[in-house]
């Protein structure tokens, strides 16, 4: 692919304080590389950015290595509560779901909310009912539960703590993309926090916090301490900095991560601006990520590598 190609993409699988140097991340890296490859092939075939981010997040939801879909963490009652959102940069159309337990692909349901309902967000039983009404794939809640997540919950209960997803097995997933027409899109999906109080919602399904896209500015997907990303209004704040100040994408994202840190949070984001520039910053020790820049080559990294 020539350097003049407008196609760009990035995906993430969570950010946190993993020791990237001494941890075995080969399986995660391989999964990220393969999923980014699927997204790249789709964009090269002429598909739009919205289709690409949905596909890549769906593949991440299928992968038990990450905290979304299969392999999602469990709440205090041993249940999954899945959140997802998607946003189209062409017109800010968006859809989100929170606390779903039966939708096989929460990101697909989020897109259906956007395209097949007059609303933006559905929650819990209502979201699962909509999934059924629209004929999307449905599974029993046990479908999502893995042995590793069950043991993580037992340990968290024994210690009496709520474990951030990025401090155990990584993590919230997301994707951003710029297609051949220059359109932007973003999608994010998560299982939340291990041992969280049932009903807790983080930044993932909050449009303008953990998920955002506008062709005039940037596409952003976040991972980390959700409450702090909400307080920072992360996605909208990046948009505002690009729209109303001289800041470039890297500066805008870095300044907002400073705001997250100021609220006591940590994590990272993946972002693509309207010019095709990428930013993948994080203020924790690591963030699982893969990307395709102007060179058309898939890059994968975990720590500062």
TrEMBL record:
Keywords: Autocatalytic cleavage, Hydrolase, Protease
Domain of life the protein comes from: Bacteria
Alphabetized SUPFAM superfamilies for the sequence: N-terminal nucleophile aminohydrolases (Ntn hydrolases)
Active-site residue numbers: 172 (nucleophile)
A Pfam family of this chain: Asparaginase_2
Any single GO BP term: proteolysis
Cleavage (site feature) positions: 171-172
GO molecular function: hydrolase activity, acting on carbon-nitrogen (but not peptide) bonds, in linear amides; peptidase activity
Residues the entry annotates as binding substrate: 200-203, 223-226
Name of the protein in question: Isoaspartyl peptidase
Protein source organism: Solimonas aquatica
């Amino acid at each position: 692919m020539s350097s003049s190609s407008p196609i760009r993409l990035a995906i993430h699988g969570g950010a946190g304080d993993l020791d990237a140097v001494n941890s075995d991340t080969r399986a995660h890296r391989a999964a990220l590389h393969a999923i980014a490859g699927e997204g790249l092939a789709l964009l090269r075939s002429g598909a739009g950015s919205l289709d690409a981010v949905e596909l890549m997040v769906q593949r991440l939801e299928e992968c038990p290595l990450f905290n979304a879909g299969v392999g999602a963490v469990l709440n205090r009652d041993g249940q999954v509560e899945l959140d997802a959102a998607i946003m189209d940069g062409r017109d800010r159309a968006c859809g989100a779901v929170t606390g779903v337990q039966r939708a096989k692909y929460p990101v697909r349901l989020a897109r259906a909310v956007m395209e097949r309902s007059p609303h933006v967000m559905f929650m819990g039983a209502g979201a699962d009912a909509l999934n059924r009404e629209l004929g999307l794939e449905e599974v029993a809640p046990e479908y999502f539960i893995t042995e590793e997540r069950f043991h993580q919950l037992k340990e968290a209960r024994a210690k009496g703590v709520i474990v951030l997803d990025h401090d155990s097995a990584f993590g919230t997933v997301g994707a951003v993309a710029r297609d051949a027409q220059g359109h932007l899109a973003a999608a994010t999906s998560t299982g939340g926090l291990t041992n969280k109080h049932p009903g807790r919602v983080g930044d993932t399904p909050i449009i303008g916090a953990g998920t955002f896209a506008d062709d005039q500015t940037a596409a952003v997907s976040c991972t980390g301490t959700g409450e702090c990303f909400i307080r920072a209004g992360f996605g909208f704040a990046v948009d505002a900095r690009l729209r109303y100040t001289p800041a470039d994408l890297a500066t805008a994202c870095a300044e907002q991560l400073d705001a997250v840190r100021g609220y006591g949070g940590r994590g990272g984001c993946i972002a693509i601006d309207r010019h095709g520039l990428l930013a993948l910053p994080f203020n924790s020790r690591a963030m699982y990520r893969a990307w395709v820049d102007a060179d058309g080559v898939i890059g994968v990294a975990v720590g500062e590598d």
